[in-house]
Amino acid sequence: MNIIVNGQDKDFPLGTTILQLLQALSLEGKVMAAAVNMDIVKQDTWSKHELNDGDKLELLDFVGGG
Residue 58: pLDDT band by 50, 70, 90 thresholds? Predict the structure, then answer.
């Protein structure tokens, strides 16, 4: 299935969860927030939240500074 991750098309197997996608992209532990089709998904549900073909996933990391 095709998932758009931060604006880039990526292919993943059907039934891939947000956590599995992060692991596949070596981003586990580096992402602070995720939104699927503009809806925030709580981090404690990432291991259960299955993505669907055509989903748009935005992954965010908060950076401090000033």
Answer: very high
Q: Evaluate whether residue 65 is within a structural domain.
A: no
**Which residues span the domain enclosing 54?**
2-60
Is 48 within the bounds of a domain?
A: yes
SS3 label, residue 44? helix
Read off the CATH number of the domain in which 34 is found. Answer: 3.10.20.30
CB 34 within 8 A of CB 46: yes
